[in-house]
Write a structure and sequence with these properties.
Helix content: over 70%
Shape: elongated
Structural class: mainly alpha
Number of helices: 3
Strand content: under 5%
Number of domains: 2
Largest sheet: none
Number of strands: 0
């Protein structure tokens, strides 16, 4: 079981993170088009780039057969 001081510190950390997220989304311009919200949302993620490379390799391998 966590001691009280550790638990309180973790709670402070979570509250700060929630507050930061709320401010981030409050200041973000809203778009009515769901596609505009989605476009580019994960394009800078390494896993997304890796998936694109696998897709390209798969399509190229399929063309060579």
């Amino acid at each position: 079981m966590l001691d009280k001081a550790t638990l309180e510190q973790r709670l402070v950390t979570v509250e700060k993170a929630v507050s930061d997220l709320q401010h981030k989304f409050e200041n973000k311009p809203t778009s009515e088009n769901w596609l505009e919200k989605l476009i580019g949302s994960i394009s800078d993620e390494a896993a997304f780039q890796e998936a694109l490379e696998y897709g390209r390799a798969f399509r190229q391998a399929d063309k060579q057969e």
